[in-house]
Specification:
The protein has helices spanning 8-32, 137-143, 145-148, 191-196, 254-258, 274-279; strands at 44-52, 58-67, 71-80, 85-86, 91-96, 105-108, 114-118, 122-126, 134-135, 152-157, 166-170, 175-179, 184-187, 205-215, 225-235, 247-250, 263-267, 270-273, 282-287, 294-302, 306-312, 321-327, 333-338, 353-357, 360-365, 369-375, 380-383. By secondary structure, it is mainly β. The longest helix is centred in the N-terminal third of the chain and has 25 residues, at 8-32.
Length: 396
Amino acid sequence: MSIPRRYWLPLGLGFVFFFVLPLLVPVTLKLLQPSADKTEELGEVEASTIYQGEDGSLRMLRVMKHSTAQEDVFVLLSNDLQAKQLLGEPQRIVLPRAQVRRPARLRSEADGQLSLLLNDRHWWQRLPTQTAFEPMDAALRQRFAAELGTGVSKYDFGELREPGLLDVTSNTGDRYALYWASGELYPWAERLQRWQQRPWAQYAQTVTRIDYADFDTDVAQYGMPMVLLQFAQKVRPGEFERWPRLSVHSSADKQVRAAPKLYQPLSDGFVVSRQAVREAGITKIAPVTSVPVQFSGEVLARNADRLLMRYDETPSTAAEVVLQIVDVHSLQLVWRKSTREIPQLLFDGEHLAAQAWPGGFYLSTGMNLPALVIDNDGQTLYDFQPQKRLALPTDD
């Protein structure tokens, strides 16, 4: 039986509607699904750190970054180093693309929080009990509305001697020293004066510090000699910390011989300024005799039991860089190794960075590549082998 031509169009539409469309719709919907279902692009490592989980396991947090024409995309990954598996879902933070490339930076705070700076214009924090970072910009503007209500144009971390310091520049161009944990905000130019003028005589507690001091004498003509000191510094709970940068002088220096009463004996033949000691709230001070004078010495990281330091073997510009660990209780040298013996650090330790965790230290190298996790005795716990991912330069 033939079907009249006037029924061809209705029948054709019915066939498409009942038979063809049900097959096409799932395919079409799959094509239209957002890219979140696809493999996340990670980009390059911008920053990383080591922390311990509540169960004591050692974990790594990596901040990955890739960019589009309009956006900078940061992906935060946490891994269990022993189990070698990803913990939870990655956190994704999308920001307007910065005109100038600024690597992300991480810092472990004294209370266990992690601070994260993105593009130097955004500040995020993660509490020890949390698994995700929270933006702090709005809370900062609200807390200090008079100074920062217009917003922040730039953030920076303080140096190791000022562990809680956040260097903040407002959108009006004013620069401040921010200590979030103690709720203090000062004009940048006043931060040193406010610290020096603390009523140290009223402080009942002291803490022991170990740090390098400049070996500043008339006879030191080459390199940057440094001496390691141990000192007791007065503290008041709740106030921000600041470690002094001291200078050691020879008792034979002209300035010392001209006014000897201005200097306090430190060891045989060497002195330190009484004013510098007084302004820093220092009650006792002495050299660490187990560590000799070294060149360009720097404390890279500290935990409750150990100090990780680097120094140059000689005062020449082509010096060999050496790492060492000192026990903060016995003041004895625990471990010492040249960076040339550690190929994971790349380029003989140039651009080396370190972070402490209670049981040891995490070392990262040039290009923000994770290098090593070592324990408090210098033994390697995890080797990320960056030298196998980045070709080393030849001597040709």
